[in-house]
Amino acid sequence: MDNVSKVVIIGSGPAGYTAGVYCARAGLEPVLYMGTKYGGQLMLTSDVENYPGFKDAIQGPDLMEQMRAQAERVGTTLIQDDVTEVDLRTYPFVIKTPSEERRALSVIVASGANPRRLGLPSEMRLMGRGVSNCAVCDGFFFRGKKLAVVGGGDTAMEEATYLSKLASSVTVIHRRDALRASNILQKEAFADPKIRFLFDSAVTEVLGEKKVEGVRITNVKTGDPTDIQLDGLFVAIGYDPNTEIFRGQLDLDKNGYIIVKNETETNIPGVFAAGDVRDFRYRQAVTAAADGCKAALDADRFLKEPHQLNLLQA
Ligand code: NAP
C-alpha cells in the first residue's frame, strides 16, 4: 500500500519527541507533525532543573531543541505543520494538515494541553520571569519568597500547599467568594498558616519590568484596586487539552482529556495517547517523555499483530 506511514505522531513536546526516538529506533519510520507552534509548554519556560541528564539548569527551549534534534537524528521525519483533521474511523487512519493528507497504520496523539492564561500582556511578558504555571517545576526557585496563586480549583489548592513548604507566604487570589476545589484540598489549604486568601479579587496587572515585583488586584464587587508586593505569581486556573480535532472519535473525559486504558490505549485500536493530552495528574516533562516511550512501544507491538503485518507487506 503506497503513501501509508507506519506511525504518525501528533505533537512536539517531550511525549511526541520521545515517541519519535523510540519509533525511529524500532524501524517504524515515524512521521511527526510538530505543529506551527512547536515544542510545547517548555518553550515558555526558562530554567529547567528537574529533567534528568542535565547537571546544570537548561533553558526550556534549549531542552526542546535537543529533543527535536535527537528525534531527527535517529530518523524521525519532522513536519512543521498543524494537524487540522483526522479520520480515525477509517483504516488506515487519515491525518490532514492544510497542505497534505497522509494515511497511518498507527497514531500517537501527543498534542499536549495549554495552561489557561489570565489574558494580560504583562502576564506573558513576565512568563518565566516570575510568572509560572507549574509549582513543581518552578517552586524551588522561589524559596523564602512571597508568592501568589491565582485560581480556586483543585490545581490552585495543590499548587498553594506545595509552594507553602518553600515560600515565606502564599496568597491565593480567587475571583469569587467561594472555592471550587474539593473539600479535602480546601481544608488542607485553609489549615496552612502560610496560606492566606483574597476572595472576590481579579488580577488586573502583573507588576515589574524585568521580573515580577507584584500584582494589581481589583475587587470585583467594589472595583477598588490594590497593589500587593510579590516575587512570583503562579497561574493555576486550569488547562485545556488539545483534543478538539479528536472529539467524537476518541473518548474524552468531562474536561476534554483523552481516556486511556493500559497507560496509552485509546478506545480505537492502533491509536495511542501520551503526555499531558491524557495526563492531568503529573504534567511533568519527564512523565510526558516516559509516556511517549510507552506509546511507541505499544504502537510497535500493535504493528506486529498478524493483521498489521499483512497490511505492511501488501
Ligand atoms: P478548574 O476546576 O476548572 O478550576 C479553575 C479555577 O480557576 C476556578 O476556580 C475558576 O474560577 C478559576 N478561573 C478560571 N478562569 C479564570 C480566569 N480567567 N481568571 C481567574 N480565575 C479563573 O481547573 P483545575 O483546578 O485545573 O482542575 C481541573 C480538573 O482536574 C478538575 O476536575 C479537578 O477536580 C481535577 N484535578 C484534581 C486534582 C486532585 O484530585 N488532586 C488535582 C488537580 C486537578 P471559578 O471557580 O470562578 O470558575
Verbal overview:
This protein is α/β, with parallel strands linked by helices and 314 residues long. It has two domains: 4-114 and 239-313, FAD/NAD(P)-binding domain, CATH 3.50.50; 117-235, FAD/NAD(P)-binding domain. Helices cover 26% and strands 25% of the residues. It contains eight helices and 19 strands. It has helices spanning 14-25, 60-73, 121-125, 135-138, 154-164, 183-190, 285-303, 306-313; strands at residues 4-10, 31-33, 47-48, 58-59, 77-79, 85-87, 93-96, 101-109, 113-115, 131-132, 146-150, 169-173, 195-198, 201-207, 214-219, 225-229, 232-235, 239-241, 271-273. Strands 1, 2, 5, 6, 7, 8 and 19 form a seven-stranded mixed sheet that branches. The chain has a five-stranded parallel sheet with strand order 10-17-11-12-13, covered by helices on one side. Strands 14-15-16 form a three-stranded antiparallel sheet. Helix 1 runs parallel beside helix 2. The mean pLDDT is 95. Residues 116, 118, 150-156, 158, 175-176, 180, 237-239, 255, 280 line the site of NADP nicotinamide-adenine-dinucleotide phosphate.
CATH architecture of the largest domain: 3-Layer(bba) Sandwich
Number of strands: 19
Give the total of domains. Answer: 2
> Helix- and strand-based class?
alpha/beta
Could you tell me the mean pLDDT? Answer: 95
Give helix % range.
Answer: 25-40%
H-E order: EHEEEHEEEEEHEHEHEHEEEEEEEHH
Could you tell me which ligands this complex binds, including any ions or cofactors?
NADP nicotinamide-adenine-dinucleotide phosphate
Give unreliable regions as ranges.
none
- Find the CATH superfamily of the largest domain: FAD/NAD(P)-binding domain
C-alpha termini separation: 6 Å
Strand content: 25-35%
The general outline is elongated
Largest sheet: 7 strands, mixed
In the CATH scheme, the class of the largest domain would be Alpha Beta
Number of discrete helical segments: 8
Fold-level CATH name of the largest domain:
FAD/NAD(P)-binding domain
Global Rg = 21 Å
